[in-house]
Amino acid sequence: MHKVYTNIIQIAGDVITVEAEAIGYMEIAEVTARRGISLAQVIRIDGKKVSLQVFAGSRGISTGDRVRFLGHSMRVSSGDDLLGRIFNGSGIPLDRGPALSNNLIDIGGPAVNPVKRIIPNKMIRTGIPMIDVFNSLVESQKLPVFSIAGEPYNELLARIAVQAEVDIIILGGMGLKYDDYLFFRDILKEQGAISRCVFFIHTAADPVVECLLVPDISLAVAENFALAGKRVLVLLTDMTNFSDALKEISITMEQVPSNRGYPGDLYSQLASRYEKAVDFDNAGSITILSATTMPGDDVTHPVPDNTGYITEGQFYLKGGVIEPFGSLSRLKQQVNGKTRSDHRAIMDTMIQLFSDYRSVLEKQSMGFQMSLWDKKLLKYGKLFEEKMMSLKVNIPLEQALDLGWQIMSDCFSPEETGIKRSIIEEYWPKS
Q: Of 299, 304, 107, whose CA–CA distance to 210 is shortest?
C-alpha cells in the first residue's frame, strides 16, 4: 500500500511541500486535486519536509489535496513500439497514438560501469565534409554544437538525423518553438527516417519540470536500445534551455545561486547526462550530439563553459557554417587513420592552407600588395568555403577527400602543398 498524505504545508510556484517519511529522491507521486490527478517528482528532502515539482503546474492545487507516493522514480516504456512515435517530456503521446505501458524502465539511473565500456573506434558518417573529413564524429562520443540564437543548429541536427549511419535516432527537444518541433517531424517524415526515430518534445509552453525530464527519458530509452545491440544517436536541443530550467527550479527552492544565477551543481547535472554516452562491450552504443546556445556569443557563459570540461570537443556553428577553427573532435584520431590513407594528409594540409588564406584576407583588408602565392591562397580559400564549408554540400567521405585533392590541384602545384610524395603520387589528380 502506498501512503497518502493530505498535509501540503507550502505551495511555491510549481513546487509543493508535504510532510512525509521514508520517501526517496526523484520518487514519483500522484497529486489528486479538483482538476484531476497530476504527477509530481521529489526534488528535495529536508528531514520530513519533502518538496515535489508538479509536472502540470500547481494551479488548482490546495493545501488539503491528497499526495500519494508511488515508491519508484519516473518510468518510461521501452522497446520497438516507441519507434516512429512522438511523446512529451513525461512520456505521454503527442501523435494521437496509444499510450504505452509495457516494458517500463526507470529513468535517471547512473552512468555505465567503465568496465563495460570499450575504447571508441568506429566512425559515424554524416555526409557533411566539415565533420567527416576534418572533425570525424566517433561512435559513443559526446559533442556539443556551440551556437547562438538564429543559427541553423536545429537544421544541422535534423540533417545528421537523416544521414547518420546509425540504427536509432532519439530526439530530445527542450524549450523548442512549436515551429522547430514541426520542422523536425516533417523533415524526418519527408526523408523516410521517422521509422527509426523516437521524439521526446518539450515546448516553451510546457511545464518546466518536463524540460528537466527530457534528457533523462531520452537517454534511458537510448540505453535500453543500446543494450539490445543498436547503435543509437541521441540529439539534444537545447541544453541551455535545460540549464535555464535548472536555474528556475533552484530559485524556487531558494537555493544559494552560483555564477549568473545558475545552481552550484550545474557541472554535475550536465555531466550526469553526458556521461551516458558509451560503447558497450558486446552490445550497441550511445552517441550524444547536443545543441548549446551561447547567450551573447559568450563561450565563457556557465553553460558552454561547464560543457567544455565534460565533452570530447565541440562544433562551432557560426555564420551558417561549421567554423574550422574552434571546432574539435578529440577522438577523430581514433578513426580517421582507418578510413583512407590520405585522410589525415588532406585534413591537416587543407586546414593549414585555409589558415594561411585567413591571414591573406587580413593583409588584403589593410591594403597590402598581393603576391602570386597570396593570390593562389585567395582562390583556394574561396573554393574551400564554397565546396567544403557550405552546409549545402552533401557527399560521402571518399568523394569529399577526392574533392579536397581537386581543390588543391586547381590552386597549387603538388610541391606547394607539402604533402608526402608517396601520397601525392597515389592521389593527386592525373589531369
A: 107
∠ CA 335-338-136, rounded to 5°: 30
Residue 372: helix, strand or coil by DSSP?
A: helix
Q: How many residues does the chain have?
A: 431
CATH tag for 4-73 (out of 1.10.10.10, 3.30.70.3040, 3.90.1150.10, 2.40.10.170): 2.40.10.170
CA–CA distance, 350 with 169 (Å, rounded to integer)? 32
Strands (DSSP E) contained in 274-369 are 278-279, 285-293, 313-318, 321-322, 328-329
pLDDT digits (tens, 9 = 90+) for 27-71: 888 888 877 888 888 888 888 899 988 887 777 888 888 899 988
Q: What is the CA radius of gyration of the chain?
A: 25
Residue 107 grid coordinates: 529513468
Contact 25, 42 (CB under 8 A): yes
Strand, helix or coil for residue 221: helix
Instruction: Using CB atoms within 10 Å of the CB of residue 344, give its burial: 0 to 12 exposed, 13 to 18 middle, 19+ buried.
Output: middle
The third-level CATH classification (topology) of the domain covering 81-333 is Rossmann fold (3.40.50)
Which of 88-97, 284-293, 386-395 is the least confident region? Answer: 88-97
Contact by Cβ (8 Å): 246, 270 = no
- Average per-residue pLDDT in the chain? 90
